[in-house]
Amino acid sequence: MDHAPLLAGTFLDDWATRLREGAERPVVGILLRGSHARRAATAHSDVDLDVLVADDDRPAPPTPGTTGRSTGTGRTPYAARQAYLVEVDGRLVHVSVAARDVRSWVDRLGEPADWAFGLPVTAPVRLLWAEEGWRPRIDLPVLCQPADQPRLEELVATLGKVAGARAAGDHLGVRLAAADLARLCPSVLRLANPSVRVESRRAAFAAALALPVAPPGYRDDMLLCLGLRPASTGQLGAAAARLVAGIVPLVRPYTDRVAEVAGPDLAAALADGRLDRYVAQLARAARRGGYGPQVPAPRAGQWVTVPVTDSSPSDADAGAVRASRLDPAIAARLRRTPDGLVAAVVRQHDTGEVLMVAWMDDEALHRTLTTGRATYWSRSRQEYWVKGATSGHHQYVRSVALDCDGDALLVSVDQVGAACHTGHRTCFFTELPVSGAGTQR
């Protein structure tokens, strides 16, 4: 990319001299940041300059309760901003100058960047000038800032704000809270993901969407909540609920880290299922927009239904095949009940243990095949549900087989926790007496 209009010649040197000579306090260093330092600037990019000034070593103010005497030497943090429009080769260029005392600037490098979605930052920087005594401290090839803490408590609290806004009919409140919630998700998911560093806001956004360990539909739900795809407030509430309900079980193995940030009680609630129950309580309200009659919160190990926004139960008439994206070649082989359903027998993939029986329609089968998460149709609720979405007892699909008649499916899964709503590993835990057991013909 051609940077000649700005970086060629003496443009930056001239500005470094101008800022040193015009500063109110002694300058110890001047750095170029942003797109020009990354060599990613366009003709429309700002020129971002940091001016580091000497510390204020004036006596500290008297301590309250004293007779007015100073208790020692203090330091008053200093920060100021200036903006300039400069004509260069017949066009105007925006020069943005941020001035800060040097020690506060160094301290700030120990804080997370507010634009980085909670991810750690390694951003290129270029030193334009430095006072010799400070050069070893500030002549850095990159500016590094740490990742944010995993703010699980704030993530759950923000889902509560989404639910509250839905219940109050506050459409703007839903959108604002959903956007805040999405920005918090990557900081929590970092616990379960490989480390990644970013150098710009755009890179942070891309990395936040591409985290490999994330709930099903994570990227789409993030885009909805951030306002980058059109959605109703009902769809936003459902997306926010899916994000939080999906993240909680993924970070359960990291309760020690959660305890360090949010305290032992929240970590214990994460481990024993109370947090899942609380999130399920909020999720129902966020999806449905009110606190009317609700299904009781699930016990540990219980599965519950999870409504989805792209299929309306009112459109699912008995005996009809609901609209689906299932491969027509597969759909043609199914022999459905009058309700449009096929029985799904679920087993543990490596042991063959039969875990449960549920029902799938065409769309539930499509989602199971394409997301890798077992998805079923609830006959009683007339809605889709994803096993483990609220309980954390997920079923990760390894294979699906169709029987010879096309009226049953064998779903082989990796079962996390209990498959049965009673808390048992399998739904088939009640042995019946067989009088002819052990006899031979």
From TrEMBL:
<feature type="binding site">
    <location>
        <position position="404"/>
    </location>
    <ligand>
        <name>Zn(2+)</name>
    </ligand>
</feature>
<keyword id="KW-0479">Metal-binding</keyword>
<feature type="compositionally biased region" description="Low complexity">
    <location>
        <begin position="65"/>
        <end position="76"/>
    </location>
</feature>
<comment type="subunit">
    <text>Homodimer.</text>
</comment>
<comment type="pathway">
    <text>Amino-acid biosynthesis; L-histidine biosynthesis; L-histidine from 5-phospho-alpha-D-ribose 1-diphosphate: step 3/9.</text>
</comment>
<feature type="binding site">
    <location>
        <position position="403"/>
    </location>
    <ligand>
        <name>Mg(2+)</name>
    </ligand>
</feature>
<dbReference type="Pfam" id="PF18280">
    <property type="entry name" value="Ant-IIb_sub-bd"/>
</dbReference>
<feature type="binding site">
    <location>
        <position position="405"/>
    </location>
    <ligand>
        <name>Mg(2+)</name>
    </ligand>
</feature>
<feature type="region of interest" description="Disordered">
    <location>
        <begin position="52"/>
        <end position="76"/>
    </location>
</feature>
<dbReference type="InterPro" id="IPR026660">
    <property type="entry name" value="PRA-CH"/>
</dbReference>
<keyword id="KW-0460">Magnesium</keyword>
<feature type="binding site">
    <location>
        <position position="420"/>
    </location>
    <ligand>
        <name>Zn(2+)</name>
    </ligand>
</feature>
<feature type="binding site">
    <location>
        <position position="427"/>
    </location>
    <ligand>
        <name>Zn(2+)</name>
    </ligand>
</feature>
<keyword id="KW-0028">Amino-acid biosynthesis</keyword>
<dbReference type="InterPro" id="IPR040517">
    <property type="entry name" value="Ant(4')-IIb_substrate-bd"/>
</dbReference>
<comment type="similarity">
    <text>Belongs to the PRA-CH family.</text>
</comment>
<feature type="domain" description="Phosphoribosyl-AMP cyclohydrolase">
    <location>
        <begin position="356"/>
        <end position="429"/>
    </location>
</feature>
<dbReference type="GO" id="GO:0004635">
    <property type="term" value="F:phosphoribosyl-AMP cyclohydrolase activity"/>
</dbReference>
<dbReference type="InterPro" id="IPR043519">
    <property type="entry name" value="NT_sf"/>
</dbReference>
<dbReference type="InterPro" id="IPR002496">
    <property type="entry name" value="PRib_AMP_CycHydrolase_dom"/>
</dbReference>
<keyword id="KW-0963">Cytoplasm</keyword>
<comment type="function">
    <text>Catalyzes the hydrolysis of the adenine ring of phosphoribosyl-AMP.</text>
</comment>
<keyword id="KW-0368">Histidine biosynthesis</keyword>
<keyword id="KW-0378">Hydrolase</keyword>
<feature type="binding site">
    <location>
        <position position="407"/>
    </location>
    <ligand>
        <name>Mg(2+)</name>
    </ligand>
</feature>
<feature type="domain" description="Nucleotidyltransferase substrate binding">
    <location>
        <begin position="153"/>
        <end position="250"/>
    </location>
</feature>
<dbReference type="Pfam" id="PF01502">
    <property type="entry name" value="PRA-CH"/>
</dbReference>
<protein>
    <recommendedName>
        <fullName>Phosphoribosyl-AMP cyclohydrolase</fullName>
        <ecNumber>3.5.4.19</ecNumber>
    </recommendedName>
</protein>
<keyword id="KW-0862">Zinc</keyword>
<dbReference type="InterPro" id="IPR038019">
    <property type="entry name" value="PRib_AMP_CycHydrolase_sf"/>
</dbReference>
